[in-house]
Automatic annotation (TrEMBL):
Cofactor: Mo-bis(molybdopterin guanine dinucleotide); [4Fe-4S] cluster
PROSITE patterns in alphabetical order: 4FE4S_MOW_BIS_MGD (PS51669), MOLYBDOPTERIN_PROK_1 (PS00551)
Stated family: Belongs to the prokaryotic molybdopterin-containing oxidoreductase family. NasA/NapA/NarB subfamily.
UniProt xrefs under Pfam families: Molybdop_Fe4S4, Molybdopterin, Molydop_binding
PANTHER family reported in the protein's UniProt record: NADH-QUINONE OXIDOREDUCTASE SUBUNIT G, RESPIRATORY NITRATE REDUCTASE
SMART domains linked to this entry: Molybdop_Fe4S4
Domain 4Fe-4S Mo/W bis-MGD-type: 19-76
Protein name (record): Nitrate reductase
InterPro entries: Asp_de-COase-like_dom_sf, CT_Nitrate-R-NapA-like, MoPterin_dinucl-bd_dom, Mopterin_OxRdtase, Mopterin_OxRdtase_4Fe-4S_dom, MopterinOxRdtase_cofactor_BS, Prok_molybdopt-oxidoreductase
The entry's keywords: 4Fe-4S, Iron, Iron-sulfur, Metal-binding, Molybdenum, Nitrate assimilation, Oxidoreductase
Claim: Metal-binding is one of the keywords in the record: yes
Length: 727
């Protein structure tokens, strides 16, 4: 008997009548799970299962992957191009030729009137890599604007900047197999069980085989923190203080790897002088971690035969995000934990193909981690594409978080949004809305016509989703994996690479360049461009068929090699001018918005397992949406008692930017002076967030701002709640 029931309902497994299974890699988070989608006799996707012999997930899937086959039947899909003259007009159906002709004509008109950089392009982390490459080729080689970025600036830019500053180039140096070899794991602002469940399963398997210390640094008692041996509930935004203090203890007690530092690192004396100021007692007063605990953790980490660090948004989404990443890299470098089994500094990426856009999209530079700032890189790509090298700018333009202020100032007049939803995902949402209203022309290209940003578009282009097109993605551990097409897109929706190639034909420069028609041909072009003796990002030994056969291949894999390389920098040589990694000496500067008498609570945000970015997908899959269909916040019961707030009542949260109505969930997971809201709801957390920017990555500090709690009429709040359950 369970909860008074005498007759248990038996578990039944429905026969989905699958007649064929199609191979793919999951299109949600960056874990990179190999998946098979089952088709019935009518060719309809009816089931999903993990691929048993895949090196990443070994047959396992999280709840999002289990129901991923349902994406092809979700509501709100775009089935035809739409156009209108003003954003307050109704959309009218258009042909692809009409929509692309108008888009090209408006881009040309605006560039002729205001200059080449008066157009901005913002893409995503969810296209296929061949599509990222094609878009980069179009923007850099044809349209020519330098204001081109991806929404990965909102999640991974600090990791990119940190890797570049420390190691000389982007690219996570470690792999999932390091969990099997490490003797200590320290996680910063990462809630693996909910953000990346299958990576967490890999860690749990490793811990069952061989116990090692698990240390979680997070201001919230996340599920990951609950499973940890040591939880460090740090004050939001002060990670650099803790990292400098850990380095202080390691150096003060002589626990560093002197031989590794001498052979492979620059800047040791400068680092030593800086961290000397961050003794544990001084640091504890800022970061909130007890001085003795700081010493204990530093000793555990430094004395382990191998130790690895992982992090996610808790580090990246901060005004000190890049410094935090460099601080983590410092710890690994001074202990010799780079490029060895179990010793790595591993950024856990957000979106399914955020790595693909970092590698090939040309947002921050040129394809294959090439830099606009290097003349030889501009010459190399220009020759390969058949364009004039002088057409490329000599440095990177505006990033996404700087593009919207440039719209406000009139510098940018047209915007092309590709498969992202800034009206929900950007901080300070009211300001973003006003900026979009100022544009002369905006195009939104998305699989869903009910994406909130479409409301401000003049042209809507319907894109194909996962499984409706074919190509590769790169996961957190640099593993390139393949999505096979298994279903046709609805109506007139088209693969994104087709849209990019067709638009290129409408420009004189595009007509002079070659844009391959199939993704396998595009991949072959990328392979040729990846070659180079000193290049880590070399995929010349791969092919679509080989990738599927091996269930994903890690780069570098050079021509003639049988498999990829699991780790970077194992030889101790880094892509810096002298081949050594950089130890960075960084002081902490307090620039957060902190709680005060008027706004007494920290506002924290993050992912929950059943959601994915802005819920345009997961909000329409019943077995996912049913768990958290409406905006809510976690609040400490003691704080609630003081504020007169009851469990499951509604409250109004207020910051200096705006307000939001949420349902209260009382829990001890958050401290007395903090509330937590999932980041995926429209008209919610980003009405409140501040979005101060990291100076290197330009990534917003989503997680450090102050709010107050106000009472609200429960009936009116309930009405708003019902409205927000639209999907």
């Amino acid at each position: 008997m369970i909860f008074g029931r005498k007759n248990r309902k038996p578990i039944t497994i429905t026969d989905k009548k699958v007649v064929d299974w199609k191979y793919a890699v999951c299109g949600y988070c960056s874990t990179g799970c190999s998946i098979e989608v089952g088709l019935n006799a009518d060719g309809k996707p009816v089931a999903s299962r993990g691929k048993g012999n895949a090196p990443v997930n070994q047959g396992k899937l999280c709840i999002k992957g289990i129901f991923e086959h349902e994406l092809s039947g979700t509501a709100g899909r775009g089935v035809e191009p739409l156009m209108r003259n003003k954003i307050y007009d109704s959309f009218q159906p258009a042909s692809w030729d009409q929509a692309l002709d108008r888009t090209a004509a408006e881009f040309k008109r605006i560039q002729e009137k205001y200059g080449r950089d008066s157009i901005a392009v913002v893409s995503t982390g969810q296209l296929l890599t061949e599509e990222f490459y094609t878009l980069g080729k179009l923007v850099r080689g044809v349209i020519g604007t330098n204001n081109y970025d991806g929404n990965t600036t909102l999640c991974m830019a600090s990791a990119v900047s940190g890797y570049k500053r420390s190691f000389g180039a982007d690219g996570p140096p470690g792999c999932y197999d390091d969990f099997e070899s490490t003797h200590c794991l320290m996680a910063f602002g990462s809630n693996l069980p909910e953000q990346h469940p299958i990576i967490y399963w890999r860690l749990k398997e490793a811990l069952e085989k061989r116990k090692f210390p698990l240390i979680v640094v997070d201001p919230r008692v996340t599920m990951f923190a609950q499973f940890a041996d040591i939880h460090l509930p740090i004050t939001p935004g002060t990670d650099l203080v803790l990292l400098n203090a850990l380095a202080h203890v390691i150096l003060a007690e002589g626990l560093q790897d002197e031989s590794y530092i001498e052979a492979h690192c620059n800047g040791f004396e400068e680092l030593k002088a800086t961290v000397a100021k961050y003794d544990p007692v001084t640091a504890s007063r800022i970061c909130g971690i007890d001085a003795d605990m700081i010493k204990n953790v530093a000793r555990i980490y430094a004395k382990a035969p191998s130790a690895m660090s992982i992090w996610t948004m808790g580090i990246n989404q901060s005004t000190h995000g890049t410094d935090g990443v460099c601080g983590i890299n410092n710890l690994n470098l001074i202990t010799g934990n780079i490029g060895i089994p179990g010793g790595t500094s591993l950024s856990i990426t957000g979106q399914c193909n955020a790595m693909g856009t970092r590698e090939w999209s040309s947002c921050s530079g040129l394809p294959g981690y090439r830099m606009l700032e290097k003349q030889e890189h501009r010459d190399e790509v220009a020759k390969f594409w058949g364009v004039d090298a002088d057409f490329f700018p000599a440095k990177r333009g505006l990033q996404q978080t700087d593009i919207f202020p440039a719209i406000e100032s009139g510098e940018i007049k047209a915007l092309w949004i590709v498969a992202t939803n800034p009206l929900t995902s950007m901080p300070n949402q009211p300001r973003i809305k006003k900026a979009l209203e100022k544009l002369e022309f905006m195009v939104v290209q998305d699989g869903y016509k009910d994406c909130e940003t479409v409301n401000f578009a003049h042209v809507y282009l319907p894109g194909a989703l996962w499984g409706e097109k074919e190509g590769v993605q790169t996961n957190t551990e640099r593993r390139v994996n393949l999505v096979r097409k298994f279903v046709e897109p609805p109506g007139q929706a088209k693969p994104d690479h087709w849209v990019f190639s067709e638009l290129a034909k409408r420009f004189e420069r595009g007509q002079a360049m070659t844009f391959p028609e199939t993704t396998s041909e595009i991949f072959d072009e990328m392979k040729m461009l990846s070659k180079g003796a000193k290049r880590n990002l070399d995929i010349s030994g791969m092919s679509h068929d080989l990738i599927e056969a091996q269930r994903g291949i890690q780069w570098p894999m050079r021509e003639g090699e049988a498999t990829g390389n699991p780790r970077l920098y194992s030889d101790g040589i880094f892509p810096t001018p002298n081949g050594k990694a950089n130890l960075l000496a960084m002081d902490y500067i307090e620039d957060n918005e902190v709680p005060n008498e008027g706004y007494p609570f920290w506002l924290n945000s993050g992912r929950v397992v059943e959601h994915f970015h802005t819920r345009t997908k997961t909000g329409k899959i019943g077995n996912l949406n049913k768990f958290s269909p409406t905006p809510y916040m976690e609040m400490n019961p003691d704080s609630a008692r003081e504020q007169g707030v009851k469990h499951q009542s509604y409250v109004r949260l207020v910051s200096k930017r705006g307000d939001a109505v949420v349902m209260v969930q009382l829990t001890q997971r958050v401290p007395h002076n903090m509330v937590f809201i999932p980041m995926h709801y429209h008209d919610c957390v980003n009405r409140l967030s501040l979005g101060l920017l990291d100076p290197y990555s330009r990534q917003p500090a989503f997680k450090q701002c102050a709010v107050r709690i106000e009472q609200i009429d429960q009936k009116e709040a309930g009405r708003l709640n019902v409205e927000r359950r639209a999907f």
